[in-house]
Amino acid sequence: MYRYETHCHSSRCSRCAHCTPGELVQAYHKIGFAGLVLTDHFIHGNNCVDASLPWEKRMQCYYDACLEARQAAAGLDFDVLFGIEHAYGGGLEVLCYGIDLPFLLNNPDIPQLNIRKFADRVHEYGGLVIHAHPYRWAGADLQLPLDILDGIEVYNAGNPPDKNEMAQCLADESGLIRTAGSDLHHIAEPKLGTAGIALPYRVSTEADLVAALKRRDHSLILP
User: Fold this and answer.
1) Per-residue pLDDT tens for 28-42?
2) Burial of 112 per CB tally in 10 Å (0-12, 13-18, 19+)
3) 11 φ, ψ to 5°?
4) pLDDT tens digits for 110-157?
5) How far is CA 9 from CA 16, 26, 53, 199, in A?
6) How far is Cα 211 from Cα 28, in angstroms, rounded to an integer?
7) Helix, strand or coil, per DSSP, at residue 67
8) Which distant-in-sequence residues (6+ apart) come within 8 Å of 176 by Cβ?
9) CA distances from 136 to 2, 90, 92 (A)
10) How far is it, in rounded angstroms, from Cα 38 to Cα 163?
11) What is the layout of strands, in order, in the sheet containing 128-131?
C-alpha cells in the first residue's frame, strides 16, 4: 500500500507552519510515505502571502511552494500534489483537491465567492471539496452544507477525539468520501505520519488523486 498525507502546511504560505516544503518532503519520505498533498492556508485563512500583490503573483506564491516541494522530491520516487485549505470563518474550512495554478489564475473573484459558488467552480473544474476537521471550533449549527461537499475529513490529528467521532457520524449519515490527515505544521510534531490515506497504487497527479478518492480505492491511516 502507498501512503499519502492529505493535509499539511508549509511556512512558505501558512503563517502557522514552521517547516519548508522541502523539509516536509524529506520527513515524509524518511518514514516511508509515497507522497503528500500540500494544502497551505489560502487567502481567507492563516496565510502569510502578501495580500497587496496582484492576483497572479499571489497565486504563483501558492503554487511555487508546491514546486519547491517537487524539486526536493526529485529523485526520491515521492509524489507531491497541489491543494489548498480554504477558510470561511468560524473554523469552517475545506480542503480542495484536483485544482492547479490555471484554476486559481482563471478565478480572480474567489475572494468574493460564497462557499457554494466556490464549490461549484471547483466541481466544474473536476476537483473535490472536503470538509476539513469538522466541529473543531464551530457549533453543529454552523457546519457546511453537505450537498456542496464531496467528502469529510473523519480523522484530523489536530482534532480532539470527540470531534473526530462526530465527524465519523457525519460521514456515516451522509455517505460522503472519508479522508484522514495529520494537519501537520512542523516536522517535529509527534503526529507526523499518524494519519492519511493508503492506496494500492501510486497517484502522481491531482487528477489521479481525485479519481482514486471518487472510486474509494483508499483506506484510512489512523493512529
Assistant:
1) 999 999 999 999 999
2) exposed
3) -75, -10
4) 999 999 999 999 999 999 999 999 988 765 555 788 999 999 999 999
5) 8, 14, 21, 22
6) 23
7) helix
8) 146, 149, 150, 151, 152
9) 29, 9, 8
10) 23
11) 177-181, 151-156, 128-131, 93-97, 79-87, 35-41, 2-8, 196-199, 219-221
**Contact assessment for residue 157 and residue 190, using Cβ atoms and an 8 Å cutoff:** no
What letter would DSSP give residue 47?
A: B
**Residue 185 contacts residue 16 (beta carbons within 8 Å):** yes
Where do runs of H (alpha helix) occur along the chain? 21-30, 55-73, 101-105, 115-124, 161-174, 206-215
Contact status, residue 49 vs residue 95, Cβ threshold 8 Å: no
Q: What's the pLDDT tens digit per position in 54-113? A: 999 999 999 999 999 999 999 999 999 999 999 987 778 999 999 999 999 999 999 999
DSSP 8-state class, residue 141: G
To 10 degrees, what angle do helices 55-73 and 21-30 make?
30
pTM: 0.96
Distance between CA 180 and CA 156 in Å, rounded? 6
Measured in whole angstroms, the distance separating CA 117 from the mean position of its chain's CA atoms is 19
